[in-house]
Amino acid sequence: MPELPEVEVVRRGLEAHILGRTCAKVAVYHPRAVRRHLAGGADFCRELTGSEVVAAHRRGKFLWLELSGNRALVGHLGMSGQLLVQDPQSAAQAHLRVQLTFSDGGSELRFIDQRTFGWLAVQIMVHRNGARVPQGVAHIALDPLHEEFDLARCVTAIRGRTAEIKRVLLNQQVVSGIGNIYADEALWRAGVHGRRVAQSLSKSAVTTVLRSAIEVMTEALAQGGTSFDALYVNVNGASGYFDRSLSAYGQQGRPCSRCSALIVRESFMNRSSHFCPRCQPPPRARAVTSR
DNA sequence: CTTATGACCTGCAAGC
DNA sequence: TGCTTGCAGGTCATAA
Questions:
Q1: Nucleotide nearest to A113 (CA to C1')
Q2: Which of A43, A49, A120, A176 gets the most CB atoms within 10 Å of its CB?
């Protein structure tokens, strides 16, 4: 469940179901799922077994369960990862990669991931810019829904970039949590074309883009996130329904809800961008660009 | 330092 | 009915 709202839905589910429980047994069914645990799968299991989960945190699209001993079970869902809280009796599903059972004999935690871009790892906690985060999350910027997120500062960081605004929004080291869906939605709301160079945008335009990102991700979170199919679900396996509220992403060929020009889809960074050609005027072609 | 590109995977839908 | 191609919510290493 990729972007910030979907990951936050999962974090809340973990907080509700896993907090205070002690891991009794771990099974790794696919080594790629723990490739970021550098000491290997056996060590991963050893680190977790007997550990108590004391908190559930998230930054951007990374989430972690804090453990005793200054460590955390860190996870990233990649493109297709799921963390499900399930009855131990229920049958294993396809693409089950990692399974955690708990000492109370209650529900277990399953990591399911079709494409294996996601991963789990036990990492030590480090200090970075006044925050305490797992080592593998230290390079990730604060996300716009974090209570310490500084909007003005982020606007300045974005405006210091020479790359196109959409590329900057997707750069998790500048601002985290925004992916392809919410980048397109935020740019549409702000009336800014994703190909415009970040540096060339006014302070107020960038501020509007970020406020739009905050707004659209907050609304999506309230609806349980966005999902188009069974791949993106909460810890109970249920889908969110923000897909009904999308204005740009996946809306190519349909009228813009603001001006009724047809939404366009085009290739961008080996993926897709969706925008309204009227509400989001494209930048003037640059001299060197050959089209 | 920054930016651009491709690699890493599986499965589905569309076109032939 | 196959087969091929393109596409999908992400991040990271590498090259320039």
A1: B10
A2: A120
Q: Which nucleotide is nearest to A116 (CA to C1')?
A: B9
Burial class (CB in 10 A: 0-12, 13-18, 19+), A12: middle
Q: How far is CA A15 from CA A45, A59, A65, A146, A246, in A?
A: 21, 15, 9, 17, 28
CA–C1' span, A186 to B7, in Å?
Answer: 29
**Alpha carbons A101 and A116: distance in angstroms, whole number:** 21
Give the closest residue to A179 by CA, choosing from A276, A62, A277: A62
pLDDT at A229: 76
* pLDDT, tens digit (0-9, with 9 covering 90-100), for A205-263: 999 999 999 999 999 999 988 887 777 788 888 888 989 899 999 999 999 999 999 99
pTM: 0.96
Total Cβ atoms within 10 A of residue A242: 23
Residues, chain A: 291
**Catalytic, out of A3, A6, A47, A66:** A3
Task: Report the nearest residue to nucleotide C12, CA vs C1'.
Answer: A117
A61 is catalytic: yes
